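re: ur question from earlier - yeah i can do the single chain one, its not a big deal. heres the input i used so u can compare w yours
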Amino acid sequence: MEKRCRLKNCGRILKMTAENTFPKVEFTPEFKRNLRSLAKKYRRIRSDIQPVIEQIQHGDFLGDQIPKTGEHTLFKIRVKNSDIRKGKSAGYRIVYYVKSETKIILITIYSKTEQADISPAQIRRIVENYSD
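and the output i got, formated as tokens:
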């Protein structure tokens, strides 16, 4: 089965095999730590982010590509926080790294109400510190 790569300006055709149809999603220790911390304050965070993670697992690359991250293909997704009911702008941000066509790494998650933004340098540091 052939499928077009969904990354912008990719132009490649991905060859999909029966046992490896969807990319494998991994979590950095930073993502897990931040999720655990946010879950103490926002009880519904797991149910808020689960549909987004499932979409990524099915090969849908959501969000905006982050510039100035070197050779890494990174995206940032806005996710609604149903605990504060202010919409996506005051919700969560998930940063993920498309390492290959078969591997996606969730880099970090943060609440926009608690952290204004994350710099490309911070993201590069997390990616470089993560050993697979």
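The beta strands are 2-4, 13-15, 24-27, 64-65, 74-79, 92-100, 103-111. not sure if urs matches, ping me
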